[in-house]
Design brief:
This protein is an alpha+beta fold. It has eight helices and 15 strands. The strands form four sheets. It has a seven-stranded mixed beta sheet with strand order 1-2-3-13-5-15-4, with helices on one face. Strands 12-6-14 form a three-stranded antiparallel beta sheet. A three-stranded antiparallel beta sheet has the order 8-7-11. The protein is globular and about 55 Å long. It binds fe (ii) ion (FE2). The site of fe (ii) ion (FE2) has 4 residues, from loops.
Length: 275
């Protein structure tokens, strides 16, 4: 097994992987296992300017685990993230601007995402990441005890109303199609590690005054996402980034949505429910 050369991207999250090109991505049979180990440890892996292409991205992603399907898109294992008028999911993408876990409305959220930059804007459009393992580790013993048993309601309307505070009846009806989801605030992973579960979908804390619960969730998120605790990736065309969706929150940074920007994302399906 040839060792991978890595470079830290920030104190708590992310490594850059050097010396891997599209050829090595396709042929190095040790690489998927090494990537999964690095992902567990660093949460975000960056392959700079890899220019993988959809087929190579999907082929490599399959080696990491089973893939989610997106039947609305030409390649069912590649979701296209863009604001093009013909993009079937475009109406949901503005909420990506808020810190979130992909699939937090599901019982089992996605395991990881693999995303390549195809078209980028000159300004903005970065993706920011913050470790929710580090968020838990930064709590005091007393806070850990206080939060241990709390459960949180996650709600589609909570996510979407951040972008659309005055929804139309059609929007409200659309959001109501998604049932609420209750998750513990502290996720004890099968590995034994613990992380916090918060983000755009987190609405309130079960059994706690609504405003107090909302304030607690906001405070935990703020502390976890201070500038010294995040990695903000400025994309170059061809960059491929893999993130562990289970121990991390992420968000898209603002850009001019009238300009073209296109990211291609594959998703590893989740393996364990939040518990
Ligand atoms: Fe996302």
């Amino acid at each position: 097994m040839s060792a991978l050369t890595t470079e830290k991207l920030s104190e708590t999250v992310g490594v850059k992987i050097l010396g891997v090109d599209a050829e090595r991505l396709a042929t190095d049979e040790d690489l998927p296992g090494q990537c999964l180990e690095l992902l567990e440890r660093h949460s975000v892996l960056l392959f700079p300017e890899l220019h993988a292409g959809d087929e190579a991205q999907v082929a490599f992603s399959r080696k990491l685990g089973p893939l989610a399907s997106f039947p609305n898109f030409p390649n069912e294992h590649v979701m296209i993230i863009s604001f093009d008028p013909d993009n079937p999911n475009a109406k949901y993408y503005p909420s990506n601007d808020y810190w979130h876990i992909d699939g937090s409305m599901d019982e089992v959220p996605a395991r990881a995402s693999i995303m390549s930059a195809h078209v980028i804007t000159e300004e903005g459009g970065e993706t920011a990441f913050a470790s929710t393992y580090a968020a838990y580790e930064a709590l005091s013993e007393r806070e850990r005890e206080q939060l241990a048993e709390l459960r949180v309601i996650h709600r589609m309307a909570r996510i979407q109303s951040r972008t659309f505070p005055n929804p139309t009846p059609e929007q409200k009806a659309d959001w109501a199609r998604f049932p609420d989801r209750e998750h513990p605030l502290v996720w004890t992973h099968e590995s034994g590690r613990r992380s916090l579960v918060f983000g755009a979908s987190a609405s309130h804390v079960v059994g706690m005054d609504f405003d107090r619960g909302e304030a607690l969730l906001e405070e935990l998120q703020e502390r976890a996402t201070t500038p010294d605790r995040i990695y903000t990736h400025t994309w170059s065309v061809g960059d491929l980034v893999i993130w562990d969706n289970t121990g991390l929150v992420h968000r898209a940074c603002e850009f001019d949505r009238s300009l073209p920007r296109r990211m291609h994302r594959s998703t590893l399906v989740g393996q364990e429910p939040i518990k």
